[in-house]
Amino acid sequence: MQIDHQMLHEILAHFAIDGTLSSFKFHNEGHINTTIFSTFEHEGRLYRYTHQRINTEAFKDPVALMKNVSAVTAHIRGKLDERDGDVDRRVLTVIPTREGEPIFLDSQGGYWRTYRFIDQVRTYNRIESEEIAYLFGEAVGTFQLQLADFDGSSLSHTIPRFHDMRLRYDQLAAAVKTNHQGRLAAVSGELAFLEENKDRGCIITDAFSAGRLPVRVTHNDTKVNNVLFREDGSEALSMIDLDTVMPGTILFDTGDMLRTGSNTAEEDTLALDSVDCALPFHRALLSGYRSKASFLTPLEEELLVESGRTITQIMAVRFLTDYLNGDVYYHTERESHNLDRSRTQIALMKAMDRQWGALTKGA
């Protein structure tokens, strides 16, 4: 979809923004949604905003998505002290339409949202120190603590059964049965390992389905690059990218935090011997997380370390399924890309198992 200057003016006019549009630029760095940064001038001052056209291929119900985001951010804002000058950096600010809605539908069927741009922050693509790992853990714990009294069941499921291990294994079984890309012979070892680990991988899904784990608000994409830090890296300020906020168990979030935060290698590395679970980072992540997560039930606490292995396993299953299906979901840059990703997750699972005693010591 081409967006010219006139069309952009028409779209932005529907949002409750004071002043005159003075400049804008497109941001194209592999994001799912079309993103535009703008600057408005109002009474001699400049104000910056982030505008996004939501990808409806990835998110089928953008209205429900933005209702989730609006409800969660409003709840968090209510917990913050307005005397703290950092409030607008500690939670996303949704700019409503002039009719008070969190989303606007344009004449071509595009769904748009606007956030206040957050200045004087930085992000990290990888964790490079125990200090950053600790702060990352704090950020996830703080996000969950702020929403611990929010009724997670009131939110919509933007991607139903997103972390349901039983569903993901059913999808893998269907891909194996079909084998329409003829790739099955290359993955016998991976399939055997994942089948051997199926029951253990389903512990959290089964406990959640049985009602033994509470329904909470979950972020579902807890990677370190979804955390805003102070420019000097001294504090984690807020979680961003809330598109997958929905009901679930917080173990989905601790699991992805541990999976992405402790892996010593890139997610698609070809050097599997470089994949390891960095014990100092793992401990720092959990330490930072626990410093904020005062709301955990005994079973949630018991399964924290297990959650890291579980989410690693579910990603191994999903990557392998997509490989067998012909790479229809994840973007790939080489024929074996999804297989390489799956093998990395399996290598990380094995690395966790080798160190399981140390990972769970005192946990």
Main attributes of the structure:
Aminoglycoside 3'-phosphotransferase, Chain: A, domain 2, Phosphorylase Kinase, domain 1, globular, 363 residues, five-stranded antiparallel β-sheet, alpha+beta, 2 domains, 14 helices
Can you put this structure into words, describing what you see?
- This protein is α+β, with helices and mostly antiparallel strands and 363 residues long.
- It folds into two domains: 5-119, Phosphorylase Kinase, domain 1, CATH 3.30.200.20; 130-360, Aminoglycoside 3'-phosphotransferase, Chain: A, domain 2 (Alpha-Beta Complex), CATH 3.90.1200.10.
- Helix content is 43%, strand content 14%.
- The chain has 14 helices and ten strands.
- It has helices at residues 5-12, 62-79, 87-90, 130-146, 165-178, 188-196, 198-201, 203-209, 251-262, 279-290, 298-302, 304-325, 337-354, 356-360; strands at 20-27, 34-42, 45-53, 104-105, 111-116, 121-122, 216-218, 227-230, 236-239, 246-248.
- α9 packs antiparallel against α10 (279-290).
